[in-house]
Each structure stands twice: as structure tokens, then as C-alpha cells.
Write a structure and sequence with these properties.
By secondary structure, the protein is α+β, with helices and mostly antiparallel strands. The protein has helices at 26-38, 40-44, 58-65, 101-109, 119-126, 172-175, and strands at 15-16, 47-50, 73-82, 85-94, 98-99, 114-116, 143-147, 155-158, 164-168, 179-182, 186-187. Helix content is 25%, strand content 27%. Residues 53-157 form the YbaK/aminoacyl-tRNA synthetase-associated domain.
Length: 188
């Protein structure tokens, strides 16, 4: 059972993530441990919940556990090119919104056209499973763009695996290495 009150988490039971690293993808576990070295109090609040991989989709999981959809944040990988250089961003937006790829993301990356990354490429480059991609542990060269609505309060995000979800507290996403809070990254 939860010993931490996470508003909107429904019936989903969580465990301390730092004590259950086997429920995280390797890059996610390594990133969480690195954050624990610099922000121990913040990292100690991170929770993980084991779920059936068939319930990994945000809407499916929300319905199955009676969660508030606004608690979930999705990590979308987007890329564009400028002068032959590919520019990649992991964009974190609330599940109740959509990443503004054609305007804000494109302008932020300074590219002519921005597109969602193909599934195979996203999985291979991130070291995470599709449906579990998370901002925790994305490769350092990528930009990490956090919609301002995700900068506050708890967020349910991927763990890098389809069989679990992370619950991160207020301030955690903005403490990730290279995180940039972007006003208007997402649209309703």
C-alpha cells in the first residue's frame, strides 16, 4: 500500500523507486541514482508502481486504476534537422494536452520541420521500451523540454519499461539534467 499520498493516483499501489530499481529500465535506474547523489530528498520521494504491461497506455491505465488523467505526463520524442544536423528533444507534456510540435517545439529546436520519431528508432536510441519512454535517463545530447504544466505537482511518467510507472514529486522533472521549462510546449 502507499505510505505517500499522491493525489489522483487512484488504487495504484506504489513503492519507493530507489529500493526497487529492478522495475526501471537500466538508463532510468542509473539516472535516478545519479539524481539521488545530487538531490537525495527529491529522489527519495520518487515512487514506482508495477503494472500489467497491457495497461501501459495512459488512458487504459487511468481507467483501470481510477486515476486522474491530469496526473499523467507523457514523454514524446521529436526530431528535426538544421544544416544537416539532427536535433532531438524529449518533450514532457500532461496527458490532457498535446505537444505543440508544429510551432513551439519546432521553434525551440530551431528547425524547419519537427516530427515524432519512429517507434523503432525511439526504442533503440533511448534504451527504453515503447510505451514506457521517460524523461528520466534520456541521452545527454538530447534536449529535455518540460511543459510548464508539468513543472509543478506530482506526475505519473514512464519507467522505461511497460510493466511499471514512476510517480515523481513536485520539482523532480525540472531537476533532471538539462531540463528546460517551456511555456506553451503543449496545447489543450
Amino acid at each position: 500500500m502507499n505510505d505517500v499520498d499522491i493525489p489522483g493516483s487512484g488504487t495504484l499501489a506504489t513503492l519507493p523507486a530507489l529500493e526497487n530499481l529492478e522495475l526501471l529500465a537500466p538508463p532510468t535506474a542509473a539516472a535516478l541514482q545519479a539524481i539521488a547523489a545530487t538531490h537525495p530528498n527529491l529522489a527519495a520521494k520518487v515512487r514506482v508502481a508495477e503494472i500489467d504491461p497491457e495497461l501501459a497506455g495512459t488512458e487504459t491505465m487511468t481507467e483501470a486504476f481510477g486515476m486522474d488523467l491530469a496526473l499523467s505526463s507523457n514523454c514524446i520524442l521529436v526530431a528535426g534537422k538544421r544544416a544537416g544536423e539532427e536535433r532531438i528533444a524529449a518533450c514532457v507534456v500532461r496527458a490532457t494536452t498535446n505537444a505543440d510540435v508544429n510551432h513551439t517545439v519546432k521553434r525551440t529546436l530551431d528547425v524547419r520541420k519537427a516530427s515524432f520519431w519512429p517507434q523503432e528508432r525511439a526504442v533503440e536510441a533511448s534504451g527504453m521500451e515503447y510505451g514506457g519512454i521517460t524523461p528520466v535517463g534520456v541521452p545527454a545530447p538530447w534536449r529535455l523540454l518540460i511543459d510548464s504544466r508539468c513543472a509543478e505537482g506530482w506526475s505519473c511518467i514512464g519507467s522505461g519499461l511497460r510493466r511499471s510507472k514512476l510517480f515523481v514529486p513536485d520539482g523532480f522533472l525540472t531537476a533532471l539534467p538539462g531540463a528546460e521549462v517551456i511555456e506553451g510546449l503543449a496545447v489543450e
